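Slack export, channel: ligand-projects

TW: morning all. Re-posting the request from yesterday since it got buried. We need the structure predicted with the small molecule present, not the apo form. The ligand is zinc ion; the SMILES is in the block with the sequence. No rush, but it would help planning for next week.
GE: picking it up
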Amino acid sequence: MAETDDSKGFCVRLLEEAKLGVTLGRLEVLSVLRDADAPLVITEIHHRVLNRGVSFSLASVYNSVAKLQAAGVVDGRVFDGHKKVYALAGTMCQNRLTCVQCGRTELVDDPEIASVHQKAASRLGFTLDNYTLSMSGVCQHCRSKSRLRK
Ligand SMILES: [Zn+2]
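GE: finished. pasting the full token output, ligand included:
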């Protein structure tokens, strides 16, 4: 994975816009997230930073991500109830699943869905900035209520 000047320029601009100092750690984290085709857990970000030949501790990566998130450059979400995943701000999926009976809405953060969106966009020659998927159905609670009525 060759790092182009373009990618570096993009990441430097993001940091400048957020009025954050340009440090190697922040640049690497941003660059990894930019190249990722789905939101990543912190250990995966660390792994990919190391794979670029940059020697950073997990704690440094964690600090960089925390700073980037506080500045609004990176979004963090809890996925699967316990895993925290990160992506560039605005690229995190906004997939909603809404119950047509009670209106309860859940966010569906599934890296597989994100990956499908990225692939579909790149097949058409697009880079993906954002997407929203809206799904509806009947939640478990409403399903069990209607079973009781029958
Ligand atoms: Zn419901």
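GE: first-pass observations. The two ends are 59 Å apart (CA to CA). The chain has a mean pLDDT of 86.
TW: perfect, thank you
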